[in-house]
Amino acid sequence: MSEPRGNWSNWLEFLFSVIGSMVGLGNIWRFPYICFHSGGAAFLIPYFLSMFVCGMPAIFLELMYSQYSNLGPGRVWIICPLFQGIGYGMVVLTAIISIYYNVILAWTLYYLAGSFSTVLPWSTCDNEWNTDLCRIRTDKSNSSYLPLLGNETLVNTTLSELGTPNISNQMLVNMTNQTVTPSEEYWRHHVLQMSSGIGEMGSIRWQLLLCLLGAWLVVFLSLIKGIKSSGKVVYVAATVPYLILIAMLVRGLLLPGAVEGIKYYTIPQWTKLMDAKVWRNAAVQMFYSVGIGNGGIVTLSSYNRFHNNCYRDALMFPVLDCLTSWFAGFIIFVFLGFMANQSNLPISEVVKEGPGLAFMAYPDAVTTMPLPQLWSCLFFLMLFTVGLDSQFVHVQTMVSAITDAFPRTLGHRKLLVTAGVCLTGFILGLSCVTQGGIYVLTLLDWYIGSFSLVVLAMSEMLVLAWIYGVNRLYDDLTMMIGYRVSPVWKPMWLVVTPLFVFILLIAGLTNMSPVPLGGKNFPSWAQAIGWLIATCPLLPIPVGMVLAIWNETDGSLKERLIQATKPRKEWRPALGVDTGQGRDDMDMRTREMLLSDDHSYMK
Q1: Which residue has the higher pLDDT, 552 or 470?
Q2: I want to staple 21 with a disulfide (CB 3.0 to 4.6 A). Which of 9, 153, 393, 489 is the partner?
């Protein structure tokens, strides 16, 4: 007999879990960079427009059909068995992401441990991993100081003091570009010990191996009792980052150059709105930020109680995600303004995105602050907790898909399944903690988000709106929340949002370029592997179609095909069933709707 799936103890657990899922590392280290280069405050216009046109309708749809059935991203596709591969494709996609996502958490643990040093190890140039090119960006008393990408006037002055005033501008640029900060050398030569390329994997970095093991242990222990334990952990994991961000903002505002950083971030550049690339950047950032198409929202919503107001949630969650991204940008640019002030550089030359911001730019800035160990600890603790929430959802998505697929044999063995998922993720992640691991991680990240996620999200919307039907979706929603919402969502699901996602897909494919790292492209064989990885989440779709038609034993091929598009008899509202926390009572309104001839829920 299968074990009940259970429900969230209260709505706050669901709220914090969804916020933790949506608010990830990209909100901290990518959104501010994209916003700055796409018109500052003007960028919010296409960003929020994308949220209303695509984010809200897609999130609404995912919240609705999974809450209605209390089924995760795999099993829930009994709603349309012919396309069951969409759900399992989401699970495959999430599995690949979880492998390298926890490696990033391992990096943050490594830096967090280094933050307890008496002297921050990335603050000086006299360590064993430093080279002769190392220069402290703010050590202006040192006559050998050469700022990274610094201005020509300062370099001329410094070289004159060395007795070499006559030097060409090109040589100045070359010499300037060759200097590196201690934080960059710490990242490249100590933490990663980067090899020359993906063809040279080198040995495993045992320090990162231990950090990776620690990260997976934290995930496992937090999910040891499923949503009963994770629902409690997210109270801390989802709120602590906001408290740390507020503390960092207050501290950052007291630093010199902070106001200039905020000006660069917020002053609108209206002319940028005429650039099509800015609109594409806004759409792409919004799409990936809210977590559409990866199964995470479907998984979390599947643990909701049947009458939860998912309409309210769909209107609120994307807005919270957007506001968090905007707020995080203030903290980042306060410190970038401080860095620019200290190094006498334009802010545009110290702005970085991704790991370059988290593991080089910010560590470099914090070394010049009072109590650098404290602010370094807070920053990397914030990064770890932000990423941890998202990783919880990755693992829950896989565990829910497995236990839903085999409810009788594995439904009561969730602990064992969780342990197996975490152990497998740890083993597969070992390649990313070698000396060439950064190349593997970059390859996975570049190609897994290229087009498979967009295809899965678009397929999900088209199948639910056109095959299952928007009228059925409206009836299901009315049964759950007790009233009918505005009909505006019907054209959004049928045409507007799928078309929006399709345009994103075409734009992404036409602008697709070989994966770069360090100014170099990966070899052809590595790019071929990348494309294979990109197609893996899509393979379950044709496989699922074949199996669905094969399982329909009666009728011609056309009749079996049509039959495979209809919901199975197991598809029903999650009412009157034991959820593990008491039997939900079916109110009279819902009972009447179920018995009405105008509805076909049980057909």
Answers
A1: 470
A2: 393
User: Where does 36-117 show beta strands of DSSP type E?
Assistant: none
Strands 516-517, 520-521: parallel, antiparallel or unpaired by DSSP? antiparallel
- The residue among 268, 303, 525 whose CA lies nearest residue 392 is 303
Kindly tell me if the per-residue pLDDT of 170 is higher than 60: no
Contact between 434 and 196 (Cβ < 8 Å): no
Task: For residue 384, give the nearest of 16, 98, 106 by alpha carbon.
Answer: 106
Q: Could you give the CA distance from residue 39 to residue 161 in angstroms, rounded to a whole number?
A: 41
CA distances, 187 to each of 194, 379, 381 (Å): 9, 16, 18
Domain boundaries, the chain: 11-121+202-361+373-443+539-553+560-588
Residue 90 in contact with residue 547, Cβ under 8 Å? no
> Is CATH 1.10.4160 the right assignment for the domain spanning 11-121+202-361+373-443+539-553+560-588?
yes
How many CA atoms within 13 Å lie on the side-chain side of 601? 23
- Tell me the two tokens of residue 578: 């034991």
| pTM for this predicted structure | 0.84
pLDDT at 169 over 80: no
In angstroms and rounded to an integer, the radius of gyration of the C-alpha atoms of the chain is 26
What's residue 132's pLDDT? Answer: 87
How confident is the prediction for the chain on average, in pLDDT?
82
* Residues 6+ positions from 55 with CB-CB distance below 8 Å: 286, 287, 290, 292, 318
Q: pLDDT tens across 418-474, in order? A: 999 999 999 999 999 999 999 999 888 888 877 888 899 999 999 999 999 999 999
Give start and end residues of each alpha helix (H) in 238-309. Answer: 240-253, 258-266, 276-289, 296-301
- Read off the amino acid at residue 517: L
3-state SS assignment for residue 123: coil
Closest by alpha carbon to 503, among 536, 458, 460?
458
| Residue 493 C-beta-side C-alpha neighbours within 13 Å | 27
Q: Which two tokens stand for residue 70?
A: 């209390």
Q: Are 406 and 74 in contact (CB under 8 A)?
A: no
Which structure tokens are listed for 293? 């198409």
Report d(CA 237, CA 219) in Å as an integer: 12
pLDDT of 512 strictly over 80: no
Q: Give CA–CA dist 192/440, Å, rounded.
A: 12
The separation between the first and the last C-alpha atoms of the chain, rounded to the nearest angstrom, is: 25
CA dihedral 223, 224, 226, 228 (to 10 degrees): -100
Task: Check: CB of residue 539 under 8 Å from CB of residue 54.
Answer: no
Q: Which two tokens stand for residue 597?
A: 């001839």
